[in-house]
Amino acid sequence: MKICLMNHFSDKMHPQLQSQGYEVVSENQCDLASSEIEAILLRSKNLHNLSLPKGLLAVARAGAGVNNIPVERMSEQGIAVFNAPGANANAVAEMVLTAILMQVRHVKPALEFTGRLDALSENLAQQVESEKAQFQGRELQGLKLGIIGLGAIGVLLANKAVALGMKVFGFDPHISVENAWRLSSEVIHKSSLTALLNDCEALSIHVPYMEATHHLLNQEKLALLPAGSFVLNFSRDEVVDRQAVLSALEKEQLSAYITDFPESALLQHDKVMCFPHLGASTKEAQENASTQVIHSLDAFLKRGEIRYSVNLPELPAGEIPNGCSRLLVIHQNRVGMIAQITDCIEEAEENIIEMNNRSREALAVTLIDLQSDKNQELLSEIESLEAVLSVRYC
What we know:
It is a single chain. This protein starts with a strand and ends with a strand. The chain has 14 helices and 16 strands. Helix 3 crosses helix 6. The relative contact order is 0.11. It is α/β, with parallel strands linked by helices.
């Protein structure tokens, strides 16, 4: 199988994929018109306006967000989309803590002050001593931190903040059971966003960007924060209403806005601290994300297992039994589809050893082990069914 690598990956990526039996081509060698490309591995490359290979089976992003991938179009074609949720969680959580410390200890203005000092001045020590009081800050101990979104990043941040002595409030109506187990018992659960905002001195947001989270923090919500609070956005630029933030800063409702998404209006404001998208920018996070999506991609391509997909249901799958073949059918989630697929198998006089079916919203996946070799005629028959989006032997 041929995999196209888009964007920059570590030098370990090529040999790792090659050792697993894949042919690897880089973006500048990748002919997307070629039906031979069966998988794409990327970071930030935007696929929305690109024509994709006809034989494409999967797209995998070494990161959490998939805004750069036309997921709906992929789903319509039966193409699996994978991401690496949680792989960069520790990196982002540490970056948020760095930003909180920089804010409460006035690190940025203090550094700017020392940067303006004359290193050769005879009065250097006296000048430092006389001016340092303006940079007096506060400790993290007892700081009231609110966290919106208790996914992998939010939970890690909450637990680290508790360990540093902060009083942590969390809000997430959709928290998973797994993340609930991981969350420190000292985190105070808030039943509504309003209740959370009323108690925060610092607020950090960690939600995916979608229609429901567009401008989640708007003028109305920001007004609920106690005066002098500050907001941290290491999630997505669009989850916060930028103009509402600037207005709140001018009214001194907010003392600061800290974001990982620079924009000209923000860069010109002295109460805004912008980072150049550093949240997940660590060597460890990049390697974790790459390793995770390679495992997901390999399991899907070789045995039809689905994990960490953003458009297909989770589907466990063991090794293909000796002497058997395995069919993977991605189809619309309609009544009667399993019967139509098994009818094709019965007409081909094939024997089913094991079958597994899972669905997710409008899509479903059926994985079937057959006691026979691969049968191209059977494949064509199933492919011709109206609601089948893609079918292949693993």
